[in-house]
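User: Fold this; C-alpha cells only.

Assistant: Input:
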Amino acid sequence: MDTLTGKQRSYLKGLANGMKPIAQIGKSGITENFIKQMDDALEAREIVKVNVLENSLLNTKETANKVAKRTKGYFVQAIGNKFVIYRPSTKNPEIQIPK
C-alpha cells in the first residue's frame, strides 16, 4: 500500500476524531528522539494525533508529511495545529481499514 484512498482516509479520520494528541512538537522541531517516540507510539496504537505548538513556527501539514515519511507511516489529516499519522503495527495490527 503506497497511499491511502479517500475511503481509507475518511475511515481513519473518524477513528482519530475523538482522540487527544499524545505528542507535541515544539521549538526544537522534529528531533531523532521525537521520531523514536512516534515509532513506538505507532507500533502500539497504529494511529496517533500530534499537536504542533505555536512557538515551533512549523507548518502543520509539511511537518505531518515529514513525520509520516520518517516513520514510514501515512499522513491522514491536518486540522489547525494538529495532525494525524497512521501506520499498521508490524507485530499486532488491530485497525482494519477498508480496501
